């Protein structure tokens, strides 16, 4: 199951999440970025960084 930890992209944040598919995981990450970090849209560079840390 793919998982993501916010601290792996250099954020001082304890958030971690996982989902059955990478698409669902990306949705959860986008929701988290918007609600907690006030990032309305994640740009391409940010996604590249995020995807490198997805296990
Ligand atoms: Zn976070």
Our Rg estimate from Cα atoms comes to: 10 Å
Distance between the termini: 8 Å
Helix run count: 2
- Largest sheet, strands/sense/barrel: 2 strands, antiparallel
Q: Please tell me the overall pLDDT.
A: 97
Write a concise keyword list for the protein shown above.
two-stranded antiparallel sheet, binds zinc ion, mainly alpha
SSE layout:
Elements (H helix, E strand, L loop, with lengths): L2 E3 L10 E3 L3 H15 L7 H10 L2
This protein binds zinc ion.
Description:
The longest helix is centred in the middle third of the chain and has 15 residues, at 22-36. The chain starts with a strand and ends with a helix. It has one domain (3-53). The radius of gyration is 10 Å and the shape is globular. It has a two-stranded antiparallel sheet with strand order 1-2. The chain contains two helices and two strands; from the N terminus they run ββαα. The protein has helices spanning 22-36, 44-53, and strands at residues 3-5, 16-18. 45% of the residues lie in helices and 11% in strands. The model has no long low-confidence stretch (mean pLDDT 97). The protein is mainly alpha-helical. Zinc ion binds at residues 6, 11, 13, 15, 32, 36-37. Zinc ion is lined by residues 6, 11, 13, 15, 32, 36-37.
